[in-house]
């Protein structure tokens, strides 16, 4: 991929002199909106992470009283799940890094609908206020992030908190839906001349597939949430057995959204990892087309596996077999991704800079999370493992270590391009190693707790589960220390005076964002780049 | 006395003390047996223990099958993870910039790309075949010896014995401050579910209010309790003893405080127990759909 002349000297003239209010509150610039999204993700991660630390403190010893009672506990676990998914992982990967780099990578001047882009962000920000009200009002929303009725209907969850949580999902959903429409329009229509779909960087492929998943999954969530709100407030009985409704219907609707949601969180991560691995191996991505279409296949199959979340709910025997087999099939395209990353590194000239450490950590830990995923896909085994700590370990290996490691890989990879300042290499590596040790110590013992039969969402447990819970809580404290190191890295980045080259990673970084200055100017391209 | 003589004398004394203790213990058991035949189950306790690394010992054939398949699938996945780990170690040591300054430019290898599609497919087939067997086995709840209707409530379980008319009672967790020696905090209940060993028992599981989860890890049984729905599962308990389970679907304030305790006893003791229970459990008998007898907050204070 080569780039025609693109006069960076002129780029400096592209800066407008804008007031703070017009730049940040009425933004139409994809980079500024991306920065807003990343700020939102930072806040969401801090609040959601703090909740997780409270949870681990409560569980450090049996019979603790750090959390006042079961209602408070349930509100905390619910908010932790919602915040980490909708206000940390999604805004960081899709709204944040997607906004920043998709237009740049395809050589587009901005997103297709800049004002819609701004609106997407502010819906999400409003949703954050609502989800916090859902946590803090009264005794909070205590149904878990899956929001299964009847626990969150008007009888068992009276009070406004649950309504706020449900509406927060509407706001986050509208935000994601508008963002998805924007990404699809941008990627399909605004690629630079010469950039065919089969030359498009893998991160853009990842965001494109993610956008289609959002487009098809979010309306189903919106329907389910609306039905819940109607049941709570207007006397309908979609999910009320006494009125002819069925709680199982909600489970189907929720997971028809919820399972694609899992891939919505991990596909952009796949895209970032491909770029980081290729850059630091100084090699092009191995099997590019296989990598792109593996994501498309994961997206398709991801829509037809939802009831594997319901193996111990009301589901027929033959449906179990179908959903088990369909679920296991996803291991094949995922295997293509993993082996292609390794093949990309194979024969490379690898530099173990901080982003590469996060990417390699991602690959290994995601394989462990994937392996336990294959175990859980077995409906027969799920009868033993469903909803216990083995499941908690599994999905934190793919999310807390998968998605979060990819977010950090992307952060260290692109922070120079976004801020114009490089991170301190030593402290980046300290952050990686402390976090690697912390999360493994937190989540690996959960496999053992699950095998021993400890259920999830328990504020107190039988004394026999104390040992591994203690180890897990120590791991969470190490992760807190690691996060403090990350805050120090942020301070160093924003206080740095160092100037950065356009392409500070050198020969391995070949996508278009490395052809523009660091930080990227407000108007990325003064001339449309041409891809040969 | 010789040293040997001292030893023999002490051994004899020790044996005598043990004999007396065993006699008394046996007599105590013989006396209590008519009151609660289920007490015989105290011989064997299948409860979780600290630093556990694996499933509880299999209490039922179903759990034994789950245990086997789990080992089978986990070993396969361990080989896969180990293979990836070896590849990554090779990459780290052989292809670091210092060792390999000139990167290769290979980006395709059709044979390799076909291999890493075909081999995972074969592995999946090897997993799916025994897995489907287990699904059908778990679903086969036909021809039970007896059926227990299990109903989840906020926050207790209700057990109704379909073959014993009138036997329908509730089971509450022992609050932390009332735990007696021999009971397990957070797992022991006031009235355990008493079942005969060696017989096929079908559970018909439902809920009177919100979702609950009827989860018996040592027997390999788990099903949601869903209002307006009945799900079934089954078990055959292999030997007399005490088995534990917990609610495994979030159900509100005291989700962590409705454990399941099962006393498995020989069939004759079970029949004797049903007569005792019919006579004594009347005040505990509830009609289905009756809501929690204790106000929410009072129950919270009692259990936390």
Polypeptide structure, described:
- The complex is a heterodimer of chains A (532) and B (304).
- Chain A is an all-alpha fold.
- Chain A has 16 helices and no strands.
- The termini of chain A are close together.
- Chain B has 304 residues and is α/β, with parallel strands linked by helices.
- Chain B has helices spanning 3-32, 61-94, 110-139, 267-280, 296-303; strands at residues 45-46, 146-153, 156-161, 168-171, 193-196, 200-207, 212-216, 221-225, 231-236, 241-247, 260-265.
- In chain B, the strands form two sheets. In chain B, strands 1, 5, 7, 8, 10 and 11 form a six-stranded mixed sheet that branches.
- In chain B, a hairpin with a 2-residue loop joins strand 2 and strand 3.
- The longest helix of chain B has 34 residues, at 61-94.
- Chain B starts with a helix and ends with a helix.
- Chains A and B meet through helix 4, helix 8, helix 10, helix 11 and helix 12 of A and helix 2, helix 3, strand 8 and strand 10 of B.
Summary?
The complex is a heterodimer of chains A (532) and B (304). By secondary structure, chain A is mainly alpha-helical. Chain A is built from 16 helices and no strands.
List keywords for this structure.
heterodimer, A: 532 residues, mainly alpha, 68% helix, globular, disordered N terminus, B: 304 residues, alpha/beta, Immunoglobulin-like, six-stranded mixed sheet, five-stranded mixed sheet, disordered C terminus
């Amino acid at each position: 991929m080569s780039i025609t002349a693109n006069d960076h000297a002129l780029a400096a003239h592209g800066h407008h002199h804008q007031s703070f209010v017009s730049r940040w509150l009425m933004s139409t610039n994809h980079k500024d909106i991306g920065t807003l999204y990343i700020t939102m993700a930072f806040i969401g991660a801090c609040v959601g992470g703090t909740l997780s630390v409270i949870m681990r403190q409560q569980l450090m010893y049996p019979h603790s009283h750090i959390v006042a009672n079961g209602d408070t506990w349930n509100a905390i676990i619910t908010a932790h799940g919602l915040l980490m998914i909708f206000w940390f992982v999604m805004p960081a990967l899709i709204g944040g890094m997607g906004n920043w780099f998709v237009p740049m990578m395809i050589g587009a001047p901005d997103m297709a609908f800049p004002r819609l882009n701004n609106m997407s962000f502010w819906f999400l920000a409003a949703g954050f206020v609502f989800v916090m009200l859902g946590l803090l009002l009264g005794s909070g929303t205590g149904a878990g992030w899956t929001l299964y009725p009847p626990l969150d209907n008007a009888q068992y969850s009276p009070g406004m908190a649950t309504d706020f949580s449900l509406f927060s999902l509407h706001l986050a959903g509208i935000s994601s839906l508008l963002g998805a429409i924007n990404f699809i329009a941008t990627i399909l229509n605004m690629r630079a001349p010469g950039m065919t779909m089969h030359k498009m960087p893998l991160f853009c492929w990842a965001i494109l597939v993610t956008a289609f998943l959002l487009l098809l999954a979010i309306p189903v969530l919106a329907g389910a949430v609306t039905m819940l709100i109607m049941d709570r407030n207007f006397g309908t009985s979609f999910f009320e057995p006494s009125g002819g409704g069925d709680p199982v219907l909600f489970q189907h609707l929720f997971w028809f959204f919820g399972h694609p949601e899992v891939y919505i969180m991990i596909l952009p991560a796949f895209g970032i990892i491909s770029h980081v691995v290729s850059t630091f191996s100084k090699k092009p991505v191995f099997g590019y087309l296989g990598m792109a279409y593996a994501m498309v296949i994961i997206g398709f199959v991801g829509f037809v596996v939802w009831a594997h979340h319901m193996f111990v709910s009301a589901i027929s025997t033959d449906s179990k077999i179908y959903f088990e087999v369909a679920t296991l099939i996803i291991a094949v395209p995922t295997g293509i991704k993993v082996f292609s990353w390794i093949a990309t590194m194979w024969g490379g000239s690898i530099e173990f800079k901080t982003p590469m450490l996060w990417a390699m950590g991602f690959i290994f830990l995601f394989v462990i999370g994937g392996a336990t995923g294959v175990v859980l896909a077995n409906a027969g085994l799920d009868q033993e493992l469903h909803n216990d700590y083995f499941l908690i370990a599994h999905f934190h290996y793919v999310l807390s270590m998968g998605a979060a490691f990819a977010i950090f890989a992307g952060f260290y990879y692109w922070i120079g391009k976004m801020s114009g300042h490089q991170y301190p290499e030593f402290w980046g590596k300290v952050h990686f190693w402390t976090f690697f040790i912390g999360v493994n110590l937190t989540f690996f013992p959960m496999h053992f707790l699950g095998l021993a039969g400890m259920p999830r969402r328990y504020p107190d447990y039988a004394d026999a589960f104390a040992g591994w819970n203690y180890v897990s809580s120590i791991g969470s404290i190490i992760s807190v220390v690691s996060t403090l190191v990350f805050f120090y890295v942020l301070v160093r980045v924003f206080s740095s005076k160092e100037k950065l080259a356009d392409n500070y990673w050198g020969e391995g970084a070949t996508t278009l964002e490395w052809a523009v200055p660091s930080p990227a100017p407000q108007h990325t391209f003064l001339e449309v780049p041409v891809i040969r | 006395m010789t040293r040997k003589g001292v030893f023999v004398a002490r051994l004899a004394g020790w044996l005598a003390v043990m004999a007396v203790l065993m006699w008394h213990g046996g007599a105590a058991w013989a006396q209590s047996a008519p009151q609660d035949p289920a007490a015989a189950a105290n011989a064997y306790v299948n409860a979780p223990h600290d630093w556990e690394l694996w499933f509880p010992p299999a209490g039922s054939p179903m759990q034994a099958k789950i245990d086997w398949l789990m080992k089978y699938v986990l070993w396969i996945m361990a080989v896969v993870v180990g293979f990836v780990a070896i590849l990554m170690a090779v990459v780290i040591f052989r292809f670091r910039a210092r060792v390999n300054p000139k990167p290769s430019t290979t980006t395709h290898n059709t044979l390799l790309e076909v291999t890493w599609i075909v081999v995972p497919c074969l592995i999946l087939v090897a997993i799916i075949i025994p897995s489907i067997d287990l699904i059908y086995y778990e679903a086969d709840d036909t021809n039970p010896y007896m059926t227990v209707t299990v109903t989840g409530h906020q926050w207790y379980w209700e057990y109704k014995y379909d073959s014993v008319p009138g036997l329908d009672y509730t089971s509450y967790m022992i609050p932390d401050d009332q735990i007696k020696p021999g009971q397990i905090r957070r797992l022991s209940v006031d009235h355990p579910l008493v079942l005969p060993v060696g017989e096929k028992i079908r559970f018909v599981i439902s809920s009177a209010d919100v979702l609950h989860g009827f989860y018996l890890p040592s027997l390999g049984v788990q099903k949601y309790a869903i209002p307006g729905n009945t799900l079934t599962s089954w078990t055959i308990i292999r030997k007399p003893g005490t088995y534990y389970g917990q609610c495994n679907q979030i159900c509100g304030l005291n989700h962590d405080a409705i454990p399941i305790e099962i006393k498995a006893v020989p069939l004759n003791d079970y029949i004797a127990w049903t007569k005792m229970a019919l006579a004594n459990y009347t005040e505990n008998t509830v009609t289905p759909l009756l809501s929690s007898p204790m106000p929410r907050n009072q129950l919270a204070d009692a259990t936390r």
